[in-house]
Amino acid sequence: MDKWQQQEFPMSLADFDFLRNLAYSQTGIVLPERKKQMVYSRLSRRIRFLKLNSFSQYCHYLDNNTQELPEFINALTTNLTAFFREKHHFVYLDKQICPQWLAKKQKRIRIWSAACSTGEEAYSIAMTLYGQIDLSLFDVKILATDLNTQVLETAKKAIYSTEVLSTIPANFATKYTKRLANNAQFSIKQRIKEAVHFKQLNLLQPWPMSGPFDVIFCRNVFIYFDSDTKKRIIKKFRALLSDGGYLIIGHSESINDFTTDFEFIGQTIYRARNRTAPC
């Protein structure tokens, strides 16, 4: 007998195909055969919670209960993040991009964290901006979106374990965070929180914002998509970026094979070409 039929919750090949096809249609995430154990592990928690006996029952439940779809998506999406993760991106924002805005006397600044997870990336962006400019004198908005509704709730609360406080530069930690009474957690100060606006967004569905954005962070997301999905999303990003705006992606990602609309700056940073300029 197939080992997947002998486990706590039997899962047939048909069950796995149903689940990965649903994941792809709803999120664009590709789940190859090697991800079967991950799918089993993450969805088993939902099956236990719902008091079901097999993946077949769970597939049937998903097919007949639309309210389960967000829980299904939340269970499957990966949310690895950290403050100032891939530090060179924040150095570039601090040392290169912010001075460009100041030199142009640009007052309107829009940044989008397109897969913000529990908020660390968006708050790192806000701290970096505050280190260079007085946000009260500029029209600054940081949009932070994620597919997963659960991580967005954590992001909005802006309360984190003190174990990760060391990942924030010491001068920023002093200025923009405060330890809570239990000393096991810290919170992001209000002026940083006010710069960030969290929204739930599925990148495969219509986007309500009109832009233009000056910088879009979309890091470690393209690795989950197939080529067609990547092309569609990159094209939509370009449509929302101002000429000369920046797209910042993850360290193991590249968009060079999917578009000629961007100039590669280095270290997974791309600049949008002028729409009237030749490629």
TrEMBL record:
Residues 4-275 form the CheR-type methyltransferase domain. Keywords: Methyltransferase, S-adenosyl-L-methionine, Transferase. The keyword Cell cycle does not apply. It comes from the Bacteria. It is an enzyme of class 2 (transferase). It holds the Pfam family CheR_N. It catalyses: L-glutamyl-[protein] + S-adenosyl-L-methionine = [protein]-L-glutamate 5-O-methyl ester + S-adenosyl-L-homocysteine. SMART domains: MeTrc. Its EC number is 2.1.1.80. Methylation of the membrane-bound methyl-accepting chemotaxis proteins (MCP) to form gamma-glutamyl methyl ester residues in MCP. PANTHER family: CHEMOTAXIS PROTEIN METHYLTRANSFERASE. This is Chemotaxis protein methyltransferase. It comes from Shewanella subflava.
